[in-house]
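tl;dr need the bound structure. longer version: we got a ligand (phenylalanine) that a collaborator sent over and nobodys looked at where it sits. i said id run it. heres the input, straight from their email, havent touched it
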Amino acid sequence: MHDKIIQIIQDSENFTAETLEQIEEFRIKYLSKKGIVSALFDEFRTIPGDQKKEVGQLLNQLKISLQNKINSLKEQLSNIVTTSNIQDLTLPGSPINQGSRHPISIVRKEILEIFARIGFTVSEGPEIEDDKHVFSALNFPPEHPARDMQDTFFIEKDPDILLRTHTSSIQVRVMEKTSPPIRTISPGRVFRNEAISARAHCIFHQVEGLYIDEKVSFADLKQTLLYFAKELFGESTKIRLRPSYFPFTEPSAEMDVSCNLCIGKGCNVCKYTGWLEVLGCGMVDPNVLEFNNIDSKKYTGFAFGMGVERIAMLKFQIRDLRLYFENDLRFLEQFSSVI
Ligand code: PHE
């Protein structure tokens, strides 16, 4: 039996194939259920015990070498097939489509550039935060509804670890590390436990602004925001501020810009009001300054925060928030001409 196996190993090593069918025939001949190897294993059961060890090893070796042979034959064949497919090496190559920026990236970049031109630096912070940076240091009372499970994704309780619900947490991180004057803009992804619809998503992007120095006034805030709105939506854009409430700013306001589609006349995008709501803002509450060891008698400041998806919706007339996250090329390719 020993010699028989050696003979088969040699035969199979010399085998060559030109087609896949020949390789398959080879496999069936040796390795199928009724093939030579299977018959050899049957025969193996009948040989005397003292030969079993050596013949057994040889049989296993045969099986492995047959399998390797089949694999290498297949590989050789596929190489031949692909090179013979290339008929004319001088043909021009197939075009490579260039990707484009995502609309969120386009708008975020534009916002950052507008503020960079008036001296704002960019700061970032972690998406996984603690209670202090998202709530306590921003003057949220302990029972504030925003801390509720309904809005916030908690990762751990006591001490609370959570996904930040707004980029105002970066304000706190900046105040911890630097002392005034502070003039910074902070983009980032935020998370809220909201049902996904055309107008709401549980993941979105914000850009936060913070300016702290001596004698910073509400007039500075208003002028900065007017500059921003004109840069982003066009020179003829008007703004208006409506009173609002945030725990970390006092007074607080909501900023609207004049609808750039109907030029204030009223259309279905601005819901026939002529105005579009764009961001929240206000003067930094003295409690927030004091909590972060900034002397509120010497320094004042303003802050604002906006949703990037919302601004991109207004700029590009996108009507469904879910489109941003679906990665549908028919949507994404529409922005390839915007840099
Ligand atoms: N953090 C607020 C929000 O998420 C926005 C805001 C930022 C308001 C800064 C005022 C000042 O809605």
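gonna send this back to them w/ a short note. The pocket of phenylalanine is lined by residues 166, 168, 208, 246, 249, 280-282, 303-305 (CB under 6 Å).
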